[in-house]
Amino acid sequence: MDEFHGRTAVVTGGASGVGYCLCQRFAEQGMQVVMADVEQEKLQESAARLREAGLNVTGLQADVTDPQAMEALALEVKNTFGPVHVLCNNAGVGIKEAQRRLWTLTPNDWRWGFDVNVMGIANGIRAFVPDMLAHGETGHVVNTSSGNGGLTSLPTTPIYAASKAAVTSISEVLHYQFLMEKAALQAHVLFPGPHVVNTNILNSMRNRPADLRDDEDLPAYVSMRDLLKASGIENPQLTEPEEVADTCLAGIRAGQFWILPQSSGQDAKIQTRTESILARRNPTLPE
């Protein structure tokens, strides 16, 4: 899409982190932006901040894990703003799993991680894509994955990695099906990076539903930097959410399915994994 001005974007998980910066960047291009998030107070605060900067942003509360809520969001957006041209299925959560083994993770851990990270994507697609196809205008669906799981898997975050692997697969299939339909829509999969992104995803437990909580004493990390230091990385290099938003915008403009920033470290991991598969060689622990 060469021209964003006057068109409509919807971003889930838009109240903070990468989602907030995506909303800001799209609005700066002259788009009318719907910032969707489950956190009402934070949502209104963030939307107000962008409006104070002169940007055309509206905050609408929606829970991506609820299909009916997403359908209601899509209907409200259509009735208020008209056709949607950019949909960013960006909402995601992190489970406090880095110091636990896979077999100790609870059904509630798995349920919540997949409800948000996978079903949130599916619910966004179901709610918005039919009308995006029907109105026939050029459009884009961007699903936020992760290098962790979406490309290669860290051995410490099984739920997160598995959920992001699913996001990559869903996005590839969506891309193929848009081609089969000869649609004016393009699918994209966004891999935030090239370094660990400095967001507050570690604090997403605050939004975990009461019926999916467990009475476990889980390790608490104040920030992503703290988590990396606890993993033995003394001076971690981080990517800021603003950089991810810039990469996403450039990737949409370039028509890239794989919105993946250059990274020699990530490229080496992908190559090692691919060679291992082709050689039928057992995986080894990453260094």
From the structure above, extract its key features.
single chain, Rossmann fold, 287 residues, two-stranded parallel ribbon, 46% helix, seven-stranded parallel sheet, globular, 10 helices, alpha/beta
Topology:
Blueprint: E1 8-12, H1 17-28, E2 32-37, H2 40-52, E3 57-61, H3 67-81, E4 86-89, H4 107-117, H5 119-135, E5 139-144, H6 147-150, H7 158-180, E6 185-190, E7 196-197, H8 224-230, E8 238-239, H9 241-254, E9 258-259, H10 264-278
Parallel strand pairs: 1-2, 1-4, 2-3, 4-5, 5-6, 6-9, 7-8
Helix pairs in contact: 1-9, 3-5, 4-7
Sheet with the most strands? 7 strands, parallel
What is the CATH architecture descriptor? 3-Layer(aba) Sandwich
Count of discrete domains: 1
Using the coordinates above, name the CATH class. Answer: Alpha Beta
Strand content: 5-15%
User: Care to count the β-strands?
Assistant: 9
| Estimated helix fraction | 40-55%
Overall morphology: globular
Account of the 3D structure:
It is built from 10 helices and 9 strands. It has 287 residues and is of the alpha/beta class. The chain has one domain: Rossmann fold (3-Layer(aba) Sandwich). Helix 8 links the parallel strand 7 and strand 8. The chain is globular and about 50 Å long. It starts with 7 loop residues before the first strand and ends in a 9-residue tail after the last helix.
